[in-house]
Amino acid sequence: MQKTIGTLFIFSVFIFSGCNPPKDDQATVFQKIHDEVAANSKAYETLGDASEKIGHRLTGSENGAKAEEYTYNLLKGYGMDVKYHAFEVESWSRGEIDVQIGGQGKLANVPAVTLAHSPVEASISGEIVDMGNGVDADYEANPNAVKGKIALVYIGTLPNSPKGTPGLHRSEKTALAIQNGAKGIIIINQVPGGVLLTGTASVTGSLITIPAVCIGRENGMALKETLKSKKQYASVDMTNQSGLINARNVIATIKGSEFPDEKIIVGGHLDSWDLATGAIDNGIGSFAVLDMARTFNALNLKPRRTVQFVMFMGEEEGLLGSRKLVDEAIENGTIDQIKYVMNQDMSGNPKGFNAGGRDGAEAFFQAIGEEIKAIDPDFENAVSNGAGLHSDHQPFMLQGIPYASANSNLDRAIYGCYHSDCDAFNLVNKKHMETNVSRSSMMLYALADAETLPAKKLNDAETKTFLEGHDLKLKLQIGGDWRWED
Q1: What is the CA 54 to chain-centroid distance, rounded?
Q2: Pairwise CA distance, residues 169 & 173, whole Å
Q3: Which one of 139, 218, 412, 416 has the largest count of C-beta atoms within 10 Å of its C-beta?
Q4: Distance between CA 305 and CA 449 in Å, rounded?
């Protein structure tokens, strides 16, 4: 009897003293994450439901607002602490387009799609000039060739291009065409089968001064061949809409157990273009983030640092939501609280993780990857260490904040539908979504709970050196994001 009373007393002291049970070690947490996702993942099902009920998720549209509300309610339903982060931005949507190409006086209609942030209204005609890849070297080799004319450029890098040809974004190629006096730009898609690609042609997310359109690979390459022997002309007529709109990032938070003011952000852009449902770009990434939040909450995970799960809006139109979040953090003095960012953009079935270009960071990701592999033997633990632009990590990276991302191993066929009218839910691989949720959740927990993070925030001078070291200076200058004087 005395032993029973003593046991009850000890148990009562444990309960009422506010003590918590011992914290699971990392291997145990990883196993719990793996088992929870395997048994209860909602990523595939919720993306399918949203694709059917909402459709595309264009920022500023009625569908975009529905997507914001859908994800807010989903996170609330998981029991999360969730809020809207509202912002006002200039948004763009397409209207009518007519593109005709041919010999002088013999123009014929060619299927085309308007590239975002083309003018609200444009009507041009003129000679077409083939500018190859549309990079600096092409304009330097033909000075003034496109002045007052229409530039024709390939969206990627043409076969047999000189070694070291930079792989510029369509917006950077458009900016160079404008700088060199072009009155319009026609971009050739690299995907066969007449697929038309959309996306922004603006490096800033603001309206550009010339019309920009995309035509299919077959028509574009035939046009290039004709231009070798004959002059060709085009007329481009378009109307679009632009104006201030309201949008909302959606943010769910799990407060850190030891360092609540230190934040690890995992985000994916919720918005998509309007030609299809955007299931791959970026439904698979953003709805994986939602399921990572569900997983953390279901397991009551409380890492040392605060974790924020963010649905960014406006990525496709110029990283609008992530820029706004970073700008406000700078203004209110909380930018130094953001210690790491994990970006989930078109991510799935990760074979490893990218360490974001930071010296020495690979060792951390490699070590954690071995722990993931011990639980999930199919994980390859292929660590890379590069830095790039044009996704929601960029505004954070420009403030010296380290980032990581999944090295995805998706079915190659899906990339033919990037930003096009075939980016629909039928492309989504359920298993690939679930492996991403599981492996990324493990890596996220390791980052948020680490005694020492694999990389620190860089100061302004260090950030400049980092960006130069990864050959990002030219691209940032073209985009107007290079803030340093030479």
Answers
A1: 20
A2: 6
A3: 139
A4: 6
- 15-52 burial, b at 16+ Cβ within 10 Å, e below that, comes to eeeeeeeeeeeeeebbebbbebbeeebbbbebbbebbe
Distance separating alpha carbons of residues 289 and 440, to the nearest angstrom: 9
Domain-by-domain residue ranges, the chain? 26-90+244-455, 105-230
Cβ atoms of 121 and 249 closer than 8 Å: no
Show the tokens assigned to 185: 């730009």
Q: Is the pLDDT of residue 378 over 70?
A: yes
Helices then strands (H, E): number in the chain?
14, 13
pTM for this prediction: 0.90
The structural architecture, per CATH, of the domain 26-90+244-455 is 3-Layer(aba) Sandwich (3.40)
Q: Which amino acid, 236? A: V
* Cis upstream peptide for 282 (omega within 30°): yes
Cα–Cα distance, 439 to 347 (Å, whole number): 11
Q: In a 3-state reduction of DSSP, which class is residue 398?
A: coil
- Is the Cβ–Cβ distance between 252 and 293 less than 8 Å? yes
Q: What is d(CA 470, CA 386) in angstroms, rounded to the nearest whole number?
A: 8
Residue-averaged pLDDT of the chain: 95
Asked if the domains 26-90+244-455 and 105-230 are classified in one and the same CATH topology, the answer is no
Overall average pLDDT of the 403-416 stretch: 95
Class of domain 105-230: alpha beta
Burial level of 299, CB count in 10 A (0-12/13-18/19+)? middle
Among residues 231, 248, 240, the alpha carbon closest in space to that of 75 is found at 248
How many whole angstroms separate alpha carbon 269 and alpha carbon 458? Answer: 25
3-state secondary structure of 262: strand
Q: Is there a contact between 406 and 354 (Cβ–Cβ < 8 Å)?
A: yes
Could you tell me the pLDDT band of residue 1, with boundaries at 50, 70 and 90?
Answer: very low
SS3 75: helix
In contact, 283 and 50? CB cutoff 8 Å: yes
